[in-house]
């Protein structure tokens, strides 16, 4: 291999490490379309996986837009096999009339489904420097403002990683040529016909606008646009820091959602509140243009609690109990099966998952049990975690009388959409614990007695 190729691999490894793109070991699911960029991603990540302590798997989405596009899946599967990697393929039925936006949204939904099936910590895509430059220009033409000009982030929600952003399409193509100098061993690449269809705005920018600007402004156009994106990202980081620096905003971020207090936004100057709303949305990778930010501010000022406002591309805003929340309207996680219960307490220790929660248990001597806590102790035995039911009641620790569980959740200011799926620990017909809300007077061990310790933790986004 030439020095250039070795240098690309070394630079990519240095970039991944300095940016901490994969901060923990785990499985990385590589999104491979079959084109130059994604096949280079596959080859580079296969060589770096041992250094990064990553297991790899491959995902491919056939959009079902054209017969030609269906030819890519066998090629991707073949190349995954050469690296001894499992390949997961999902075929959609979008049809030839599908828009660029619809195809992108459905592709990510399919990739997220495969990520969940594989149990992958990371979802890795092959966006590179040319994609970044085209996105900056496209968003500039669309009038997206400084937040949009920050363009494609290196990391996104739920483990989304884009490690190739510093590298150009030309560099990646040269990498493959150097890695496979014998044309007979070189990957058979797939060029999606949609990438040449100028009815798609981004294709038009790539094939028509970028060449004209490059001829006029010189070969440094991509670097100039990259600097614009870097400046915009610096501004965006400043807004994100402001969200966290102002105590009265009561900023909170959890898995798949973000929220702040409503009242300050109503008091601030229009420009400041709109900037904060755009920064808030970006925390969950929701991009708001200036027009949508103005509309969202009007919604915050004039709407009542419980109302929702659609932000586009699967996101919505909700007013609840004096707070503004931005959440995914179509969460990529599977909807909670309300008939399903999760067991706890089996064995000396264990772990259970719930949407947005992780629960662990172990056997140890009990400490003092508190009424409101994220850790509690119960007498030995097993039980279940389930959603609240209409007849659920409990006697609070230190209290008198049986109280309705749903009423207690409402009094704790849990938003209505969360109350129906809030985890409740039960044993038989007894409600023992509502994590962070209330411990019942049932099954409370004496201090020093052997007991089951239960710990609850809210899963936070990256």
Can you walk me through this structure?
The chain has 462 residues and is of the alpha+beta class. It contains 14 helices and 21 strands. It is globular. The model is unreliable at 330-337 (pLDDT under 50).
Cα separation of the termini = 37 Å
Oligomer: single chain
Average pLDDT metric: 85
Given helix and strand content, the structural type is alpha+beta
As a whole number of angstroms, the C-alpha radius of gyration is 25 Å
What CATH architecture of the largest domain do you see?
A: 3-Layer(aba) Sandwich
Q: How many strand elements?
A: 21
Q: Tell me the fraction of residues in β-strands, as a range.
A: 15-25%
For this structure, what is the CATH homologous superfamily of the largest domain? Answer: HUPs
Helix amount? 25-40%
Overall tally of structural domains: 3
Number of helices: 14
**CATH class group of the largest domain:** Alpha Beta
What is the spatial order of strands in the main beta sheet?
3-2-1-4-5
Q: How would you describe the shape?
A: globular
Could you name the ranges where pLDDT drops below 50 across 5 or more consecutive residues? 330-337
Query: What is the CATH T-level topology of the largest domain?
Result: Rossmann fold
Q: Give a quick account of the main beta sheet: strands, pairing sense, barrel closure.
A: 5 strands, parallel
């Amino acid at each position: 291999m030439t020095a250039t190729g070795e240098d690309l691999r070394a630079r990519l490894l240095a970039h991944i490490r300095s940016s901490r793109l994969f901060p923990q070991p785990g499985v990385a699911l590589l999104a491979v379309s079959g084109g130059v960029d994604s096949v280079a991603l596959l080859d580079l990540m296969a060589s770096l996986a041992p250094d990064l302590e990553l297991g790899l798997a491959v995902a491919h989405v056939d959009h079902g837009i054209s017969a030609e596009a269906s030819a890519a899946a066998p090629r991707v599967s073949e190349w995954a096999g050469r690296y001894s990697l499992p390949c997961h393929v999902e075929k959609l039925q979008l049809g030839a009339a599908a828009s660029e936006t619809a195809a992108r949204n459905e592709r990510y939904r399919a990739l997220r489904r495969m990520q969940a099936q594989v149990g992958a910590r990371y979802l890795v895509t092959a966006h590179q420097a040319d994609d970044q430059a085209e996105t900056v220009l496209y968003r500039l033409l669309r009038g997206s403002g400084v937040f949009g000009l920050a363009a494609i982030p290196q990391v996104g929600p739920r483990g989304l990683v884009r490690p190739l952003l510093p590298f150009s399409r030309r560099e990646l193509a040269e990498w493959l040529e150097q890695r496979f100098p014998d044309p007979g061993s070189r990957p058979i690449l797939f060029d999606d016909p949609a990438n040449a269809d100028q009815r798609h705005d981004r294709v038009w920018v790539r094939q028509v606008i970028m060449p004209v600007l490059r001829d006029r402004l010189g070969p440094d156009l991509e670097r100039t646009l990259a600097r614009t994106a870097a400046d915009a990202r610096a501004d965006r980081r400043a807004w994100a820091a402001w969200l966290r620096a102002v105590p009265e905003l009561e900023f909170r971020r959890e898995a798949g959602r973000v929220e702040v207090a409503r009242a300050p936004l109503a008091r601030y100057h229009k420009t400041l509140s709109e900037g904060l709303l755009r920064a808030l949305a970006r925390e969950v990778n929701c991009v708001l243009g200036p027009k949508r930010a103005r509309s969202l501010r009007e919604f915050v000022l004039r709407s009542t609690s419980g109302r929702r406002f659609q932000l586009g591309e699967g996101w919505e805003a909700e007013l609840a109990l004096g707070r503004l929340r931005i959440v995914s309207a179509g969460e990529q996680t599977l909807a909670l099966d309300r008939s399903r219960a999760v067991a706890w307490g089996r064995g000396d220790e264990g772990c259970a998952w719930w949407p947005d929660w992780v629960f662990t248990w172990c056997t140890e001597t009990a400490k003092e049990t508190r009424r409101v806590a994220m850790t509690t102790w119960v007498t030995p035995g097993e039980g279940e975690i389930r959603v609240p039911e209409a007849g659920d009641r409990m006697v609070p620790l230190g209290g008198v009388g049986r109280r309705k569980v749903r009423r207690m959740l409402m009094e704790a200011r849990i938003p209505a959409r969360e109350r129906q799926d809030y985890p409740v620990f039960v044993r038989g017909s007894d409600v023992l614990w509502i994590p962070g809300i209330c411990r019942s007077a049932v099954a409370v061990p004496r201090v020093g007695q052997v007991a089951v310790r239960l710990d609850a933790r809210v899963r936070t986004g990256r």
